[in-house]
Amino acid sequence: MTIINKSAKEINKLFINKEISAKEIIDSFYKQIELIEPKIQALTSLTKELAYRQAEELDKRISKGEKLGPIAGVPIVIKDVICVKGFSATCGSKILENFIAPYEATATGKLWDAGAICLAKSNMDEFAMGSSTENSAFKKTKNPWNLNTVPGGSSGGSAASVASMETPISLGTDTGGSVRQPASFCGVVGLKPTYGRVSRFGLIAFASSLDQIGPFARNVYDAALTLQVISGYDPKDTTSLNVEVPDYISRLNVNTVKGKKIGLIKELMGEGIDAEVKKAIEVSVRLFKDLGAEVVEVSLPNIKYSLPVYYIIATAEASSNLARYDGVKYGLRADGAKEVLPMYTKTRQSGFGPEVKRRIMLGTYALSSGYYDAYYKKAQQVRKLVTQDFLNTFEKVDLLLTPTCPTTAFELGAKVDDPLSMYLSDIATIPASLAGLPSVSVPCGFDSKNMPIGLQLTAPSLSEELLLDAAYAFESVCNLSEKLKDKHAVGVV
Ligand code: GLN
């Protein structure tokens, strides 16, 4: 039986019904990894020891007649910025190359408790800074749809591993778009939850007021299932929200979008958006109307400030968060320095890559005395205006619709020397990050080069269920899933 092209839901069913053992499941995925990984380069390390331990345990429990939940037996890949106890967490950086996580992240702990199996850690832009995964210190991940193009970033490894069937689901992190943008480029579903919905404990920080862990999957149900498992209050994370988590999965139904009002954001359908992307969104609007939704144009006047605001806040927070990598507490320590200050300098000089250094410099500048008010404080004020725009708009509509990205996946190397044009990849994803809102990217079509296009839906705070309902309904009429399945296979073989 071919297992690698099955969804998480199907794999769980086969496992629960004892048609396949957990060990057989992971054997199949490791075989696919062996086959495809040399081309895709999505993973930084395999966690075989843990996977086989977890599988053995699950097989024992099932043979004893224990009742297991809806994610039991399902393999998952974890972005290398999230701590899995006893395994490396490189963050795509030389500075953490030999760092072994001393504790378990809350999100991954919940997955193991629910019976998911950890296959591997995935490649990423260094410290989650980037939009193409080319900033990884270790390797360049390829987009499974066209190996000359990037998978997006910073969670490019997580997206590419799902698209190339190395795993049915994965976890990424999204600070300004790093789940949604690579999901769009790789033709998979990627969801960023409301800020505070999923614990950040064990997620190595980039920009703490923005970072969120989110799932990738090949369909909306599997993304909802993963979100269900990882969500919830965690006293170990002071920004975690102490609110109940609704049942995301059992309500999924194609009729839920009927009567909903969807706002198409005018500012994100204009200049800079590729014509083919725009066309795919227009076709999607018609599908939403066929489903019984009303689609209206809305304007968020301050959204145009999102990108500069993000690059001040995110770099400022990064400069502070990354101060801890000094050769003393974690990871790399450069040899040869006789005193402490040169040791710090040497370690950071050799351990960090160019994009991380650029951001530390920008962020330190924005926070420095005399500039703090002009940059950091001003950026926080404008962030509030962007958030207020969303709040005002959600008084008139239930959901917002935009393209996920201005273009489809670009060629490897095309933007590495032009950070500003790289930053523009996130123009449509950053606004929801600034406002802390839940947002999902769902495949909605292909361009003329047969590269996937993603559509982004954004909902009010803590309304993931609305988002998932609409995405599920859209997915069922968009009818891409069979095409996507074939394409995934074609793209990598
Ligand atoms: N691409 C954006 C950046 O480089 C977003 C990154 C992210 O979401 N982690 O900062």
**Secondary structure: helix percent:** 25-40%
Which whole number gives the mean pLDDT?
95
Largest pleated sheet = 11 strands, mixed
* Helix/strand order, N-terminal first: HHEHEHEHEHEEHEHEHHHHEHHEEHH
How many H/I helical runs? 16
Give the overall shape, derived from the CA principal axes. Answer: globular
The small-molecule ligands in this entry are: glutamine
Amount of beta strand: 5-15%
Distance between the termini: 18 Å
Structural class from helices and strands? alpha/beta
- Extended strand count: 11
CATH topology group of the domain at 12-262 and 395-487: Amidase signature (AS) enzymes
CATH architecture of the domain at 12-262 and 395-487: Alpha-Beta Complex
- CATH class bucket of the domain at 12-262 and 395-487: Alpha Beta
Regions with pLDDT < 50 over 5+ consecutive residues? none
CATH homologous superfamily of the domain at 12-262 and 395-487 - what is it? Amidase signature (AS) domain
Strand order of the largest sheet: 1-3-2-4-6-5-10-11-9-7-8
Outline:
Helices cover 40% and strands 12% of the residues. It is an alpha/beta fold and 493 residues long.
